Amino acid sequence: MIRAYKFRLRPTTRQAQALTEMLRDHCSLYNGALQERRDAYRHSSKASITYGDQSAQLKDIRAFDPERQGRWSFSSQQSTLRRLDKAFQAFFRRIRTGEKPGYPRFKGLGHFDTVVFPKDGDGCRWDSTPHDRQTRVRLQGVGHVRVHQHRPVKGRVKTVSVKREGRHWYVVLACDEVPTEPLPATGSSVGIDMGTVHFYTDSNGVHTKNPRFLQAAAQALAEAQRHLDTFPKRTRKRSKKHRAAARKVARIHAKIRRQRHDHHHKAANALIRDNDAIAHERLNIAGMTRTPKPKPDQLNGGAFRPNGTAAKAGLNRSILDAGWGQFLRILANKAESASRLVIPVDARNTSRTCPVCGHIAKENRVTQSRFECVSCGFTANADRVGALNIRNRAGLALCDAEPSAA
Fold first, then answer.
1. What is this structure's pTM?
2. Using CA atoms, how far apart are residues 60 and 122, in angstroms rounded to an integer?
3. How far apart are the first and last CA of the chain?
4. How many CB atoms lie within 10 A of CB 160?
5. Structure confidence by residue, pLDDT tens digits, 305-338
6. How far is CA 209 from the centre of its chain?
7. What secondary structure letter does DSSP report for 206?
């Protein structure tokens, strides 16, 4: 398996300054390479600059500016150029598929927060011993930085990334050949129905509370955002108080993100520990949270008809606050590590189908929480009915898959 480990760095004051300079110089390299590509296209649309062309110039760039570019790892600079090349590849792919292109943009230092070392031992070195919390990572141009290693690293370290989040620094290790840790079989399987009133409801009728972290912090976040917006635009870049206000808003968002991430891990652990197989809906979250298209009023030029944008905004906020996508990714990763089975199934009509007689009708869903089949009269909680249908569909899929596997 491939796994990533994220640990907090404890740099000294001088090391933190060196890390900031490393980010600044890699950001400058990224923006300079982007400018070169823009200029080449502007002067001749047929000219194209590839990653190979720009990587070949690195030796001259480092010799020309040894103080800023020559002090850092050559391979990490190549990784920064690959990052730009991937952005252009994604840009051209979106053009070919008819999506919104999104031309690569210049990065400000506040938005360039990661430097990648593509190989352990080339510009970086992970020095770790089992169960030692005082490990260190060696970074070229920075030195040996202390790491708070809260769990052992398993497998072989492939890449090392240094990331800044606010005023904190982290090291992210991408490892392969990570062994699985199978859990003992429980003989139990479950279907889960994701929601906003409840985070999820399983096919046994158990509701898991939705903590609504964003809603809980909404008042503090609104006050911090209002204070940030009071600064005149002409003084924002020069004002120390404006930067402090921006950091406060970022801290609130970071806390919400950490709370949500912790909740997802704990909920996924509970499901993996108690069940051999978990079924869930295959959700198109991007489509579910898309803003409704405007509806022009042909009879009243320049006006638009109501399209439910305000009501949809509240639902979108609740879905994104629940973080279904992140939770399902964490669940799949933990299931792979524990040798459990996670089965995504078609989400259509799971809340309208009677699990007893199979009758499908929108009239079956009486209210948000109540299900009553108009054919056989079966009554139950609507979310549990959805979870039962999800589990049943997963069971049918397994039965269909077994003969082909044999």
1. 0.86
2. 20
3. 25
4. 25
5. 787 788 788 889 999 999 999 999 999 999 999 9
6. 22
7. P
